[in-house]
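A quick aside before the break. I want you to see a complete sequence-to-structure record at least once, exactly as it would be stored in a machine-readable document. Don't worry about memorizing anything.
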Amino acid sequence: MAPGDFAVPGRAQTALLLAHTIVVQAVTFMLRPASAYRALELDVPGAWLGVLGASFAVVPLVLAVPSGHAVDRFGERRIALAGSVLLAAAGLGFVLFAGSVAGLVAASMLLGTAHLCAVVAQQALVANRTPAHRYDAAFGYYTFAASLARRSAPA
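That is the input. The structure line, written in tokens, reads:
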């Protein structure tokens, strides 16, 4: 357990993890298509739609390994919290800066970073807090929660 972490009973911890997973995935997979539709409303050229789509993955591509180190150093819960805060900031960014392609791209980059932090922390929570003989079930529940949230998002 990382310094500053507090103990949460097993079932409550699992429920919090699955709820966090559902919220993160649902918000992410609702905002991504919404940003593309907003870009279409702004009559952006096709190339800018590609930039917008790719912007979600640019920062996470660079931060993938450092985010794993951050989880090891600061703990899963702190990185999950950081991902949650960044997710809220990205949502706010989409609301405040949706009038320009640059604003959409910046918010999308923030959303990608939030998603990365949250997912890396969630996966580490499952791996580090589950007894080895329960990995299949734990990762199964985690994957089900993520898939359920994605399914609830617009196509």
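Two observations worth writing down. The helical segments are 10-41, 46-74, 76-96, 101-129, 135-152. DSSP finds five helices and no strands in the chain. We'll return to this after the break.
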